[in-house]
């Protein structure tokens, strides 16, 4: 539900959400499906982008700043300047969505081997809510990662878990809504997102992508 403009405050809480995971797992498509109710088979994101979505959940008007990135190439290139990008990307996030492709096992194992370690290293909030998302369930015949494996991983890392499809929009809204509702149940995160004390995260503009960085893995 879109929030309406008026004399009342635009929103009660501002939350910063991140989307992480390997290139090509569908992070940008999930984000587009949620924010604009459409699906596009997008090219991999180079650098960082974010979209804003106004929703009403739990009786509260919320402004969600959802950051999407593809840092895989940058890490592989070993360029130190992207370490700064990484730390600023994670800073102040109340929610992190860890995405893998159910048809590509490497994207699932890399969550444990790479991305969970990045969260431990860079996340500035111990109470940050994590959501594990198995994307592309519309390709059930090509599935190589079982739902049980996803559930077990989520249990081990203390994550919420859902499987979805950006293409068919199955569980896309539920993914973001369950994450945000959990944030609303966490007092420390609620205090951070409060309109009375919130930091203007939009002053932290995503660094411009470096065109010289080349393609993406």
TrEMBL record:
Task: Quote one Gene Ontology molecular function term.
Answer: protein serine/threonine phosphatase activity
Q: Name one GO biological process term.
A: protein transport
Q: Which PROSITE patterns match?
A: RAB, RAS, RHO
Localisation per UniProt entry: Cell membrane
UniProt keywords (A-Z) are: Cell membrane, GTP-binding, Hydrolase, Lipoprotein, Membrane, Nucleotide-binding, Prenylation, Protein transport, Transport
> How is it placed in the membrane, per its record?
Lipid-anchor
Stored SUPFAM superfamilies: P-loop containing nucleoside triphosphate hydrolases (SSF52540)
Which CDD domains does UniProt cross-reference here?
Answer: Rab18 (cd01863)
EC id: 3.1.3.16
Question: Per the annotation, which location comes first and is thus the protein's main one?
Answer: membrane
Pfam families cross-referenced by the UniProt entry: Ras
Gene Ontology cellular-component annotations: plasma membrane
* Role noted for this protein: Intracellular vesicle trafficking and protein transport.
> Into which family does the record put it?
Belongs to the small GTPase superfamily. Rab family.
- In Swiss-Prot or TrEMBL terms, this protein is called Ras-related protein rabc1
What species was this sequence derived from? Castilleja foliolosa
Give the source lineage, highest ranks first: Eukaryota, Viridiplantae, Streptophyta, Embryophyta, Tracheophyta
Gene behind this protein: RABC1_3
């Amino acid at each position: 539900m879109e929030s309406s403009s008026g004399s009342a405050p635009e929103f009660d809480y501002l939350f910063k959400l991140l989307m992480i995971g390997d290139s090509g797992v569908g992070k940008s498509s999930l984000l587009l499906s949620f924010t604009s109710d459409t699906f596009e088979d997008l090219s991999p994101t180079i650098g960082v982008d974010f979209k804003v979505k106004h929703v009403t959940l739990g009786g509260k008007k919320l402004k969600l700043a959802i950051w999407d990135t593809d840092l895989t190439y940058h890490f592989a290139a070993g360029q130190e300047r992207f370490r700064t990008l990484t730390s600023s990307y994670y800073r102040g996030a109340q929610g992190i969505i860890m995405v893998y492709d159910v048809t590509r096992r490497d994207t699932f194992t890399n969550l444990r081997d790479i991305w969970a370690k990045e969260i431990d290293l860079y996340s500035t909030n111990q109470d940050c809510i994590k959501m594990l998302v198995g994307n592309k369930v519309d390709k059930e015949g090509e599935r190589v990662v079982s739902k049980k494996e996803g559930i077990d991983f989520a249990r081990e890392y203390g994550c919420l878990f859902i499987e979805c499809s950006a293409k068919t929009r199955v569980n896309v809204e539920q993914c973001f809504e369950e994450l945000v509702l959990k944030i609303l149940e966490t007092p420390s995160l609620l205090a951070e997102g409060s309109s009375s004390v919130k930091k203007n995260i939009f002053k932290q503009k995503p660094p411009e992508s470096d065109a010289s960085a080349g393609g993406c893995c």
